[in-house]
Amino acid sequence: MVVFDSNSKKKNAKKERKVIVITGTPGVGKSTFSERLAEKLGALCINLNKLIMEEGLFKDYDDARGTFVADLPKIRKRLKKLIRKASEGYILVEGHLSHLLLPRDSVEMVFILRCHPEVLRQRLKGRGYTDAKIAENLQAEVLDVCLIEASQAYGEAKLAEIDLTEKMADMAVQEAYEIVMGLRKPSLGSVDWLSRLQAEGKLEDYLRDWEGLPMP
Ligand SMILES: Nc1ncnc2c1ncn2[C@@H]1O[C@H](COP(=O)(O)OP(=O)(O)O)[C@@H](O)[C@H]1O
Ligand SMILES: [Mg+2]
Fold first, then answer.
1. 186 C-alpha vs ligand 1 centroid, how far in Å?
2. How many other CB atoms sit within 10 Å of the CB of residue 144?
3. Pairing outcome for strands 17-23 and 107-114
4. Ligand 1 in contact with 95 (CB < 6 A)?
């Protein structure tokens, strides 16, 4: 199911649509987190991966990278329509490209979910990703690619970073809920995988894995 809508359950929905973008490197836990947060907020949740695959919103298949190349203009158009047709209240848009799709003024806030690269490596291996694809994704996580791109698109004031590594999804969802409701200050900039990997003696291995990869 692409769209999980529990807005109908919420009798006192807000009078406007509030879009929350949820981004992060593949495997960090976006879909799990977003479905639960949507339930808690009585929100519509749009899973971009599912939307892209079910509606063919890609340009072609990249054999070398083993991925479909998303058609961003088509996705933007479809998303605009979905949001316009949605009931009032919160709308979550989740996916690793979600921070590249919506105009600045139309987005209330952006969650950037993070996960320790070693944990991420195991998850991506479990998904059967090639070594090259794993290296590319771990590089993106370590070098804060989603965070930097989201900051460029929406400005730091709208961003909240949550490290899911040591957190059960429900704890992270509670934290996000409190941030959305204005009960908790969002955290930003506390994740520093480069320093962590260096302290753990693993940074050199990572740098070796990235040889030959284009800089993100
Ligand atoms: N907070 C968490 N703690 C431990 N494992 C998690 C957590 N969130 C998600 N997972 C697990 O990690 C994997 C990737 O989660 P998923 O939500 O599909 O990530 P994404 O949508 O970012 O690719 C799944 O196997 C999921 O069960
Ligand atoms: Mg997902």
1. 21
2. 21
3. parallel
4. no
Tens of pLDDT, residues 146-199: 999 999 999 999 999 999 999 999 999 999 999 999 999 999 999 999 999 999
**Are 133 and 67 spatial neighbours (Cβ–Cβ below 8 Å)?**
yes
Label residue 214 by pLDDT band (50, 70, 90).
Answer: confident
Nearest 10 degrees: CA dihedral of 1, 54, 51, 29? 60
| 35 alpha carbon, closest ligand | 1
Q: Which atom of ligand 1 is nearest to the CA of 167?
A: 1
With a cut of 60, say whether residue 13 has pLDDT above it.
no
pTM over 0.90: yes
Residue nearest ligand 1's atom 19 by CA:
29
> Under 8 Å CB-to-CB from 182, ≥6 apart: which residues?
none
- 51 alpha carbon, closest ligand: 2
Ordered by where they begin, the domains of the chain are: 3-209 (3.40.50.300)
Q: Are residues 169 and 36 in contact, defined by beta-carbon separation less than 8 angstroms?
A: yes
- Burial class for 60, CB neighbours closer than 10 Å (0-12, 13-18, 19+): exposed
**pLDDT, the chain, mean:** 93
